Amino acid sequence: MASFGGKRAPANRSRPDRRAVLSARASSESSSIVDKGKRAACNAAYVGKKLLNSTGKATWYLATTLLIFVVPLLITMDREQQLENFELQNQALLGPAPPPQQVHGPPM
Questions:
Q1: pTM of this prediction?
Q2: CA–CA separation, 27 vs 25, rounded Å?
Q3: d(C-alpha 34, C-alpha 45), whole Å
């Protein structure tokens, strides 16, 4: 064995240290885990963005459909209800309609 400055070199220097191998393996595994986590986060962000985009489009379609079809229907129904209420108020103020009079012809 070779000696350095009067000291003896350890016999196991030719073999890599077990702790160094384990820490290198652990760091490579943890970096692959980190990479997988980053990919998962990127995929989740992409899916979330697409979901928000499609939800916004669906909301726009629903809102415009309501404005074009449902709102005019509600306005018409409200007008009819107001007309019925107006007729009921007039009938209450004026009283019931008189019975129709029968027209008799000239006496024979």
A1: 0.40
A2: 5
A3: 16
